[in-house]
Description:
This protein has 264 residues and is mainly α. The chain has 3 domains: 3-63, no CATH class; 78-178, no CATH class; 190-255, no CATH class. The protein has helices spanning 3-13, 34-44, 111-114, 142-148, 196-199, 234-237. The radius of gyration is 27 Å and the shape is elongated.
Amino acid sequence: MNRRFVFAAIVILGGMGGCFESHTNVQELRGTDCVLCHSDDYDATAMPIHSAPTVGFPTTCADCHRTTDWYPALGGLHPSPNTFRNATNLNDTFLIDKSSANPNQHKNIPCLSCHDLDTPRPPDPVPRGWDTNCIGCHPNDAHLQDAHRGVTPANGTTYQYRADVPNFCLSCHPQGTAEGHPTSVFPLRGEHNRGCASCHDRATGPDTAGANTNCTQSGCHPNEDRHHGEVGKYSADKAGPWPRPDLNARNFCRMCHRSGGGGD
């Protein structure tokens, strides 16, 4: 089936209201084809203006509109990086690009996959990201539970998964990013391929730079003297009670085993 036939089918059988639902036999119809019939609508739209060269609205109508009707629709373009600055001048724009400076997974995802048009609009001033639905892609599964076990947000409250607030993730992740484990520094492989809370004690602080790592009291390395008798100066330089109280009692292993390997 060629594009000319597809175009004719759309014109004869209907417009935006039913093209994707009533004409399932037109297999070649894609989101990029909407503008074939709706270029006049695109050009005539003034609130907000779509067609001005500097505006940048895409001609892929289904990015912001349902395929059953024009309304409701998303309110506008996504803010670009560095658009918003908070009181401490930190960027809190939700990042949807992917570059070497900002690697993240929120790229090439349809707008309506993250924004729910059925979310009631709150009263003014409308908060940013008010219609965002995070939990559709981030369910309360075992991985998410492990990553957040013992986490205390900046406001001092205990972390709680809020299925009743679909965008609650934004309160701690306003940019849509989360720090991953530094596999180039401490790879999660072999015996260290385990859950976050097995090694990190969030009660002692955040995960930053492994400061809350618990090597000796986690049950994994309670006393390693038996393995270090042949290590030169180990006994003399590190003599004393185990674990050493003058070092970080829980993660002092990392002084010699920075990447978690026995041969470091």
